């Protein structure tokens, strides 16, 4: 009889789910903190909803009534009994939970209700570069106002939020349009089927990636992409396809102002109908409000190709685009494109109450923006600062080491006692990998003399890089100093600060 090797699972993370260490978490937390400060200054209160919602409350990715798993991660609640319970799903954004919360608490909420939220969301979709199945979003929404100025305020606040997150002038732009423009085109062309209209909108949403030819195919019979996958088209009448094409290229003249884009759209030749005329009026009001809030033409542009893919948008829609040059891990240029967006969704709360409640909001992907900033070479500030490390030489002197690390912590300095069993060289390497600013050395000589040796790792790295000769490095010991034991805290603080 032979002993079989134990069955061991392979250590691996699921596709689209990432482990995040100090640098990534630091970057995301910094973005959330800075943007939250902007949102609160604009008068929005924080709200946190559960990770799980009942699947019917989410309402979007549910083509299979028996097992709703398309686009979301769902499970069946046992309801505390042996009978199968209702389906629950992890939230795919923060907007659908807000609609449920608003419907559930509408009588007690201040109206309009202004809230912001941040936290992880989950989407059961194909992952890719910068796209994850679990990622953080940060949202701000106004529920209960039908004024175009509410849309304009959300857009202007989005601009300030992106600046707070680390994007400078000319590094992002928010493009704005209105879904009613296409409603008018579809109405005029006799396209009444809701699925057909949504399929057409999703085709238009790919205009920046596929161009006019690719969108034309998706508006018609369909398109075979480079991977061999076939996407069914909207099968619009040829006259409607032609009207949509003319509409898409109507505002492509470089340098058009927001008002100029509206004029070009109005003169595109296609009949916009009542819905389209209402859209132009709303966009004109948004433009006036943005101008009054001193939001420049370079920060916010009107772009009739913006439609957004989600079904629940009913009016103004906006999309934030990253303009920074970005590269992948191999140094190749990569386009990040959209880093956030939003729009008006006046019918989402009505799913619960039967009464239309106007709402508008903006959301950006925290994880995606942090990844984009790193891809643009902007991640240097995200390096985490490790603790000061107290080196351990002898078990007999452990009390001295514990006293030193406790003294540093009591002074508000992050510090740790090395608790492995390696020698000094390995401990120094450990401190370097932790990103420690300094190490504290209390050897026998230091203890006997009432002193402490402190090695400034930052200064050591900088000066050692300029010393080519190994013997000179050993003689100079860059970044290392010996001080009285009572000066430990002051010396370490000076190094850190």
UniProtKB/TrEMBL annotation:
One Pfam family assigned to this protein is tRNA-synt_His
Name the gene for this chain.
hisS
The protein depicted here goes by the name: Histidine--tRNA ligase
Indicate the quaternary assembly: Homodimer.
Q: Which terms in the Gene Ontology molecular function aspect does this entry carry?
A: ATP binding; histidine-tRNA ligase activity
Name the enzyme group at the top EC level.
ligase
As recorded in UniProt, its EC number(s) are 6.1.1.21
Residues annotated to bind L-histidine: 93-95, 123, 137, 141, 308, 312-313
């Amino acid at each position: 009889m032979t002993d079989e090797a134990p069955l061991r699972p392979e250590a691996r993370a699921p596709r689209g789910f990432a482990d995040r260490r100090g640098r990534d978490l630091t970057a995301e937390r910094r973005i959330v903190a800075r943007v939250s400060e902007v949102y609160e200054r604009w008068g929005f209160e924080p709200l946190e909803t559960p990770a799980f919602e009942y699947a019917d409350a989410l309402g979007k990715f549910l083509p299979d009534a028996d097992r709703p798993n398309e686009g979301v991660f769902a499970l069946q609640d046992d309801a505390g009994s042996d009978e199968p319970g209702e389906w629950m799903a992890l939230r795919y954004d923060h907007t659908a939970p807000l609609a449920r919360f608003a419907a559930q608490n509408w009588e007690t909420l201040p109206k309009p209700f202004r809230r912001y939220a941040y936290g992880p969301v989950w989407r059961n979709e194909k992952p890719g570069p910068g796209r994850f199945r679990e990622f953080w979003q940060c949202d701000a929404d106004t529920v209960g106002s039908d004024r175009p100025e509410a849309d304009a305020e959300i857009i202007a606040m989005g601009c300030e939020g992106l600046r707070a997150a680390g994007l400078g002038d000319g590094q992002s732009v928010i493009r704005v349009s209105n879904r009613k423009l296409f409603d008018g085109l579809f109405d005029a062309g006799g396209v009444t089927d809701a699925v057909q209209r949504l399929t057409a909108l999703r085709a238009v949403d790919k205009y920046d990636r596929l161009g006019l030819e690719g969108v034309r195919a998706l508006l018609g019979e369909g398109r075979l992409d480079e991977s061999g996958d076939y996407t069914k088209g909207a099968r619009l009448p040829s006259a409607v396809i032609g009207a949509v094409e003319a509409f898409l290229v109507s505002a492509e003249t470089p340098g058009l102002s927001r008002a100029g884009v509206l004029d070009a759209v109005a003169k595109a030749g296609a009949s916009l109908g009542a819905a389209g005329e209402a859209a132009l009026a709303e966009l004109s009001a948004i433009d006036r409000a943005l101008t009054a809030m001193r939001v420049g033409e370079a920060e916010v542009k009107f772009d009739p190709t913006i439609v957004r893919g989600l079904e629940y948008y009913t009016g103004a829609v906006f999309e934030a685009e990253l303009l920074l040059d970005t590269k992948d891990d191999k140094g190749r240029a990569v386009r990040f494109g959209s880093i956030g967006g939003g729009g008006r969704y006046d019918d989402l709360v009505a799913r619960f109450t039967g009464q239309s409640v106007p709402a508008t909001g903006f959301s950006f992907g925290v994880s995606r923006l942090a990844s984009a900033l790193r891809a643009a070479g902007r991640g240097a500030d995200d390096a985490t600062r490790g603790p000061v490390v107290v080196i351990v030489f002898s078990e007999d002197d452990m009390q001295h080491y514990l006293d030193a690390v406790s003294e540093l912590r009591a002074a508000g300095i992050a510090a740790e006692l090395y608790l492995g069993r390696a020698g000094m060289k390995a401990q120094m390497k450990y401190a370097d990998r932790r990103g420690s600013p300094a190490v504290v050395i209390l050897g026998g000589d230091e203890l006997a003399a009432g002193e402490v040796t402190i090695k400034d790792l930052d200064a050591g790295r900088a000066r050692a890089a300029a010393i080519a000769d190994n013997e000179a490095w050993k003689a100079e010991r860059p970044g290392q100093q010996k001080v009285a034991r009572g000066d430990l805290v002051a010396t370490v603080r000076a190094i850190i600060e």
